[in-house]
Amino acid sequence: MQFLKRQWPIIVAFIFGIVMWAKYYIPTEESQTLQDEFMRWSRILFGFAAMLGLLSLLHHHWSKIKFKRPGFGFSVVTLVAFVVMGLTGLLPVDWHFLGFAGQYRDSTGPHMYMFEYMFVPMQATMFSVLAFFIASAAFRAFRARSIEATALLVAGCVIMIGRVPVGDLISFDASVVNGYSLLPFSQLTDWLLNIPNAAAQRGILLGVMLSQIAISVRIIFGIERTYMGGGD
Amino acid sequence: MDFVKLILNLDRRIIYTIVALLVVIPLIWPLSLPIRPTPEVTGVFDEIDRLQPGDHIMISADFDPASKPELLPMLDAILAHCFARGVKPHVLTLWPSGPGLAQQAIERQAKKFDKVSGEDFCFLGFRYGTVAVVLGMVSSIPDTFTTDFYGKATKSMPIYQDANRVADMSYIMDIAAGATVEMWVMYAAEPQGVPIGASCTAVSATGYYPLLQANQITGLAGGMKGSAEYETLLVGKYGEAHNIPPGDATKGMDAQSAVHIFIVLAIIVANICYFISLKREDEERRKA
After folding, report:
1. Domain ranges of chain B
2. What homologous superfamily does CATH list for B39-246?
3. How many domains does chain A divide into?
């Protein structure tokens, strides 16, 4: 049992890691077929992972309801939504008897009706609320307390104006004297995005990629074992 | 209470009310501010515009309802552009909550341009597995998506008789709310030599400038502004011929302009008041 829990995953990770890495250096039809086969397995594994996620979600909320933990009412809503959306999306039933015009996959069916008129507005609302919080937080906390904070504040304000049509209007029409823009928000925005931003992002991107390579090598050689759970 | 104290202790509900009004009023009474397409967005538009009738394009709609106002107009505009040009789009999503929105856009545009599923376009829907799905499509799209979103077998579809893998596509477009653009570049576009463009949310646009400068993506449409610029280009070139009106992103730009200006002004006023209050505190300390 210990072998299956500790050694076996490391062996599997090592073999598949080495094979998939070596595949890139062997451009033959056989190697491509092997990759296709592995990708097929991978998609099946992803399916099982999704199933595990669903079971975990159900278990978590069912336990909350069973033991009447604080906020268990939300779990009831989650489970009801899960069952109703699942049934209407999976069952190949003609839903005309409930007054819907379409079947389970149609845009006029009950599943898509709930998606369009319940899920979309709720998720969009959650995200939209951010605009109010950001406006309030910027007003309260965005202070030029140091040189760094001032640089961030100025850059933020320039980009906020330069990335909307009113910024173009100011930069290219309203503030132009003798062919020169006195308030070149759009031009400054382009410069900020293309020079300092791109330089910093490139550094971050290279750092992330190098870290990914390092982590992959550590996983392949069994040094990094946290993915198996329970710590190192 | 004096003005400085009033500003520094302003009730947040007042800010919320102003923001709400600045969003709603321009939507009801539009200002129709002119939209200037940037080179980043033109880079996407021109690439799709140079495609010939009958060419294939892969569109990955990797977003969910949270990003609907920013990215759904872009999907609508690109589909309208493809159908106006006679280009055949293969639409898929790698996000579980993406198919519903993509379905709306594709059915809307297909109906408008009188296009037939399986012949002029294919809506593949969603498959679990992200990288595995992309790598699968590099080898074979019908093997990876054995059926389309509506449950019809893809292998026998006319659209897959002359194009059935990523390399057969003339362009790839990733409309992404997350980090799928890098994945499309790394596993599909670069190895197969297919040009790729990206559309993303405004907050993630800054992260794609290194890819843009390295020509790993031909163009970038960031946020609602990017979608509005694409709509402007589309309406400018095909609006009259194909009866394409300005889309939702264009309508939203006035509201976004108003709120951005308000936030910038609020930050400036709050900072002035902050420094005045600091000065006052300093003077009071000296007097004491």
Report:
1. 3-30+252-287, 39-246
2. TPP-binding domain (3.40.50.1220)
3. 1
Preferred mutation among B9, B18, B128 to probe A, highest tally of A CBs within 10 A: B128
ipTM of model:
0.86
- Which residue has 């599997």 as its token pair? A12
Which of A112, A142, A202 has its CB closest to that of B210? A202
Q: Is residue A29 part of a domain?
A: no
How far apart are the CA of A70 and the nearest CA of chain B, in angstroms?
Answer: 28
Nearest to A135 among B15, B149, B271 (CB): B15
Exposure string over A23-57, b if 16+ CB within 10 A, otherwise e: beeeeeeeeeebbbebbbebbeebeeeeeeeeeee
> Residue A172: its chain B contacts at CB < 8 A?
36
Token pair in block for residue B100: 């519903």
Give the pair of three-digit tokens for residue A140.
Answer: 């309260």
Interface of A with B in 93-152 (CB under 8 A): 105, 107, 112, 115-116, 119-121, 123-124, 126-127, 131-132, 134-136, 138-140, 142-144
**pLDDT tens sequence across A85-117:** 988 888 777 766 666 666 666 777 888 888 889
For residue A146, what pLDDT is reported?
93
- pLDDT of A90 reads 82
Residue B151: CB partners within 8 Å, gap ≥ 6? A105
Residues contacting residue A15 through CB under 8 Å, at least 6 positions apart: none
Contacts of B97 in chain A (CB under 8 A): 119, 123
E strands in B20-118: 56-62, 88-93
In this structure, chain A runs to a length of 232
The reply to whether A73 falls in a domain is no
pLDDT of residue B128: 87
Q: With a threshold of 0.80, does the pTM exceed it?
A: yes
3-state helix, strand, coil split of chain A in percent (to 5) is 80, 5, 20
pLDDT, tens digit, 9 for 90 and up, residues A167-217:
888 888 877 777 787 888 889 999 999 999 999 999 999 999 999 999 999
pLDDT grade for A6, boundaries at 50, 70 and 90 = confident
Q: What is the pLDDT of residues B136-178, one digit of tens each?
A: 999 999 999 999 998 899 999 999 998 999 999 999 999 999 8
What single letter denotes the amino acid at residue B106? I
Q: Please check whether residue A168 lies inside any domain of the structure.
A: yes
- Domain, as residue range, for A155: 142-232
Residue A173 lies in a domain: yes
